[in-house]
Amino acid sequence: MFESMRKSAMRLILAQAAAGSVASAVAWPVFGQQAGAATLSGAGVGLLGSLFMVAGLLRLRSSATPGQMLARLLLGETAKLVVCAAGFAVCIIVFGLTFLGLLAGFIATLLGYWAGLLPAVLGEGAPRAAPAGR
């Protein structure tokens, strides 16, 4: 189970990175350098938040109880929220990046997250049932 969770986590991170890269690659030539940089930064903020969450979840032991798993999930989501809020604040206040570009990159990583979850939802990697009568 935990090996499957690790594979799913890597798939999520890679899908988010790909989606953010595509969004910034489109934004850069279409909307200009400033929008492309903001989109790439927004994707980076989303990716960094996910990395914090995944890192927390992957520290679980195979003997963890459901309560411990839930606590780790809630802690990871809280860390993700704090990292994303701080990342947006730094990008806007310190670097003066545009909010819409940041948001576009962040949304791209959210779409990548859901795209990365799709195989798990559809049952990829689930144990196959033995054929009846054998």
Structure description:
This protein is mostly helical and 134 residues long. The protein has one domain. The chain contains four helices and no strands. The chain has helices at 2-31, 33-57, 66-94, 99-121. The two termini are 26 Å apart. The relative contact order is 0.20.
Describe the SSE topology.
Layout: H1 2-31, H2 33-57, H3 66-94, H4 99-121
List descriptors.
single chain, 134 residues, mainly alpha, 0% strand, flat
Number of H/I helices = 4
Number of strands: 0
Number of domains: 1
Strand content: under 5%
The portion of residues assigned to helices is over 70%
Task: Offer a concise description of the structure.
With 134 residues, the chain is mainly α. The chain has four helices and no strands.
